[in-house]
Amino acid sequence: MLTKNKLMNAHQLNKNCLEGLFSFCLASCILLALHQIHNVTAFPFDSNEYWSLSDPGTFFNFPNVIRGYFYPLLLLPVHWLSNILVGYEFYLYRIYTSLLYGYLLANVLPSVYVQLFGGKLTLLRRLLLPILVAILYPGLIIYPLSDLPAFLLMICALYALTKAKSTGPLLHAAAFVVLAGILAAGAYNTRTIYWFPLIGLLFAVPLYFFSMRPVMHRVMGTLLFILGVGLLSAPQSLINHSRHGTWTPAVVSQSTDKSLFTLQLMWGITMQRYETTIDRSAPFPTRYFIDRVGEQLFVAEDLEKSQVSVVNYLRMVARHPLEFFGIYARHLVSGLDVRDGEVYVRNVKAGNTKIAVFNFVIIAFALLAILVRYMVAKSDSCEQSKVFFRDRTPANPLWPLGILLWLLPACAILPGAVETRFFFPVHAFFYCTIAFNTSIPELHAVLRRHWMLLLGGALLLGALYFGISTSTQAALQEKSGPRNEGYPYMLACGHTVSPMSVMWASALVLASLLSSSPRAARTAPCPSVRIQSLRRAPLCGLPCL
After folding, report:
1. What is the total count of domains within the chain?
2. Which of 147, 302, 318, 458 has its CA 20 to 30 A from that of 138?
3. Residues 350 and 204 grouped into a single domain
4. What are the backbone dihedrals phi and psi of residue 482, each rounded to the nearest 5 degrees, phi first?
């Protein structure tokens, strides 16, 4: 009997390995085809800055910029090769990112999701995830931007910690914990908003991943995780000492006394959405969608640059809770409403309505799948779920911790100036739910019994969603002036992303959906977006956390 079980386990292992290999190859081909379809031959704005920082001549003499070193380090090998093979640099980047993202999206991300939330892995299910990313978020693949690498680094950190939890030998577990610290710190160094899940993982090591081990092992696990963070942060400390005269391991994101996180909070009061365009017919590359309620709040509070602080912001929230609930709700819809998945809008006259509708269908279907999964799990017997969905891996009992760490970066940026790419972790969770945790028999059984209620809920959700989305699109503030000039007056403020801002991880609550009338926003100037001409701005648009 034991031999038979071993043979079955070996067969299942070989099957999983083959599925992983085939999915990696096919996903890489899909992403490479995506590159060829878009045929990007120039990297604009911040993507160009990341690519420039990865040049060996620049990287080893790291300049005084607001970026961390780790993502340029990941791009360094392909940029070095492109300097040798002149004329093939874009093809090398396409191959490199197609292979890297093909493996992570078809293997690592599915494995982490199923381990945390349950589900089933097959070849077709694995391929659905990169296909959805290619359709709705092609810009994160075809441009060297930090959003997808930072998210996947954090997912890899989660993956390493799950390996540490399930690994028997203490030495192997220790190695995985150090690796997790390195990856989590890499995510933060790539995008500083990942400070929040980094702190979350630090506490999760002793409280969850090592919870079944002795107290001494928990302490050692925490110290090893900190060791991994320190190993990756050491080069950043050297860069900061050389350029700024400080040994801090944090990414120095600005040059004065205001944190970038604080500035993002203030920008988010009057800004529902932010986009960047590469359409030369546009008078200006930045597109701001103004929030009338937030604009009125800004006028009423009479805020100035000297008053920009987290404390003042919290006081405003306490004085105007309903208004801020509405602002956050509109930010949420703006983050979910994917119209600029290419990141850089090619045609400002195109509304991308088809993409927006398809994106809403995906979101609605994912929410339906989550609801159905919950209803079946709470049904009379769990055996019913097994009949509907054979070979499903059960969800981890502490899946709430997983979803908190997964969605924390998007929640933390919710009060700030929103770009849809900032909400990619939320969309990735929806895509994974559709791909790995959806059962057609389950859907059919629940819809047959509750179709009227679910249809009514879908119509109501669609009306609210597109009502707010349409209002936001109508609130575009048009600007004129030279390209590469004209930025929010607070852009030059700030220093580092303060760890004190961790308090926001528990302060972000959505309680209502309040729409904003765009009429006055199109005519009245925005107090928080006073435009001044700068001789030379390093980036086009708002800096990213």
Report:
1. 2
2. 458
3. no
4. -65, 145
